Task: inverse folding
């Protein structure tokens, strides 16, 4: 496997739908918009722009969905990483509700795209947020009340310990919040479906086309190792893999590593015991664990703490103890898959949208990217087309640069994460 192929031990790569290899960019081409990045954000932007009639060229340094979009937990969770009460405290009720309503639009956008383009990605309804500590129950009840009172959201239900146990084959959680509006999917197959839809709409996509620099001007030159795209508009959709391509925004995000395992398939009774209604699940720890069942009844479980970008020598052995803590009855199950990748967080845990002249960007989804990325692409397309009001709702959110800039941000994050991980254990 080359460095820019999909991870060889990924469940998603092993069960990916057939998808043609796309030729690298060669020579000089002209476009209205050059999109850099073939994940959810870039694919969504390319699709929405192509549907509006723009000539779009998308450049992906590896394969479509190679980054976080093809490796993540596949969970379509509610809202933003900040809770509903935190959003009200930060922005006031009116703006908080506007942000929340757009995040709900993001979730609906997935269902709409899957239906419109007939994307086979195992889309299923339902999410469950479970309380790792007894004291979490109080704020979870408050959040349900806030969602109903302030946001008018009715698809949510608080569960006590007994009700939570009825949803999960685990006794360690104290309460839960079940959301009928979310769900889960096979993220790589969803990305491949978006790519096909973008191609069908007229966008030109290139794989194995690493961008080495952007020469900004009235017409921007996006230069790869083998060619260049000349375009009035550029969309930076690189997220954790931005690198030093645009130093002015790199310090606003922090790339962090995450790892997932897939067990051998469970039988029908075991699967029903593990997750009764086949929803996806995440807990309330700062270093969050999250899990769901695959279409072939494997437990796909993400969790664990690691504070550098190098994967463990044995990802299965690294994550399995976290799975065993939740499901000791399945601790003996064989681990068939183990893979990892990078995601990007911001200091506020809210995504950063913005523009620098005619260069637009969106990144830092902080674990909420499955849905918000699609919205980001749609809002970027709206802004390029001349209607930026909705894009500006997000772009006006102020973001801190991580202390220490790009050089020292990671050691400082490690110190902070160690502290919060210690609090998880207390």
Result:
């Amino acid at each position: 496997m080359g460095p820019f192929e999909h991870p060889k031990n990924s469940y998603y790569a092993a069960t990916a739908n057939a998808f043609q290899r796309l030729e690298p960019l060669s020579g000089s081409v002209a476009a209205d918009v050059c999109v850099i990045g073939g994940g959810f954000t870039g694919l969504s932007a390319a699709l929405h722009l192509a549907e509006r009639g723009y000539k779009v060229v998308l450049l992906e340094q590896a394969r479509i969905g190679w980054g976080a979009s093809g490796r993540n937990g596949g969970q379509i969770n509610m809202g933003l990483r900040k809770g509903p009460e935190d959003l009200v405290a930060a922005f006031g009720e009116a703006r908080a509700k506007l942000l929340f309503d757009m995040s709900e639009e993001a979730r609906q956008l997935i269902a709409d795209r899957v239906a419109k383009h007939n994307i086979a990605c195992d889309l299923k309804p339902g999410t469950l947020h479970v309380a790792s500590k007894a004291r979490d129950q109080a704020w979870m009840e408050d959040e349900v009340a806030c969602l109903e009172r302030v946001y008018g959201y009715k698809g949510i239900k608080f569960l006590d310990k007994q009700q939570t146990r009825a949803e999960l084959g685990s006794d360690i959680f104290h309460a839960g919040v079940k959301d009928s509006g979310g769900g889960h999917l096979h993220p790589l197959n969803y990305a491949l479906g978006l790519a096909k839809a973008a191609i069908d709409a007229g966008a030109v996509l290139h794989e194995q086309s690493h961008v080495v620099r952007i020469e900004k001007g009235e017409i921007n030159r996006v230069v790869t190792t083998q060619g260049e795209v000349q375009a009035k508009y550029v969309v930076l959709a690189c997220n954790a893999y931005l690198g030093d391509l645009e130093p002015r925004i790199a310090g606003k995000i922090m790339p962090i590593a995450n790892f997932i395992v897939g067990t051998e398939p469970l039988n029908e009774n075991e699967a029903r015991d593990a997750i009764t209604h086949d929803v996806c699940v995440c807990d309330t720890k700062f270093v969050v664990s999250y899990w769901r069942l695959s279409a072939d009844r494997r437990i796909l479980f993400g969790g664990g703490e690691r504070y550098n970008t190098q994967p463990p020598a044995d990802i299965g052995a690294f994550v399995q103890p976290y799975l065993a803590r939740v499901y000791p009855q399945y601790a003996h199950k064989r681990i068939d898959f183990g893979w990892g990748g990078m995601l990007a967080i911001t200091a506020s845990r809210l995504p950063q949208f913005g523009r620098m002249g005619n260069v637009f960007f969106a990144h830092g989804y902080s674990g909420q990217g499955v849905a918000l990325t699609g919205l980001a692409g749609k809002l970027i397309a709206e802004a390029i087309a001349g209607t930026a009001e909705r894009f500006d709702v997000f772009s006006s959110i102020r973001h801190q640069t991580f202390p220490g800039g790009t050089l020292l941000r990671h050691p400082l994050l490690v110190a902070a994460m160690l502290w919060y991980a210690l609090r998880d254990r207390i």
